[in-house]
Amino acid sequence: MRKVIIIEDHPIVVFNLKIGLQQYDDIHIVDNFSTGKSLFEFTGLKDIDVALLDINLPDTSGFEICPYLKKVNPHIKIIGYSSFEDYEYINRFMKAGADGYIVKGAKIPTIYEAITKVMNGEFFFCEISSEKLENIHKDNSIPTVKLTKRETQLIELLKANNSLDQISKAIGEDLKTTILIIDMLKEKINFYQLPVLLPEY
């Protein structure tokens, strides 16, 4: 029996994962956590086999939770389960200690396959995340990349010396998510060596 925890703050997502995975006899959903705080208070991590982990949580991020999980239980397998599908997010998540990555929207059989493979010592990437990784590595070179409209807007807001509160309101995100998006934008600029200089915030 594979013991699984879900670290995700959207109740509908949690509900669908539970209902979908409970159909498998070898899967036991032990618990779910909507915040880092609730996870850190959990005393049964050493008995968990697999964690399905979202990147964006109300009080922390999956990037911070990954090393914590591995420290408490070095044998735990971590599968990123997020709506973020850019290479930068996937790469950073894997570097933090994850064993696989699934973009939200994947079907339950795909998630079950991911659990099975990581438990067998393999890495797993869903079709979308796998394509992102293949595209970045197929030529062994850094490809041409364009900034999205949202990223361009964010750069303009930062260069105009707007406060983080002003930027978060402009892009329709809370403060924590805004900081995460800015950090990932910086990583993208650095990785692709884009000619963009952002001010400190």
UniProtKB/TrEMBL annotation:
CDD domains: REC_NarL-like (cd17535). InterPro entries: CheY-like_superfamily, EvgA-like, NreC/VraR/RcsB-like_REC, Sig_transdc_resp-reg_receiver. Residues 3-119 form the Response regulatory domain. Pfam families: Response_reg (PF00072). Keywords: Phosphoprotein. This is Response regulatory domain-containing protein. The keyword Glycoprotein does not apply. It comes from Sphingobacterium thermophilum.
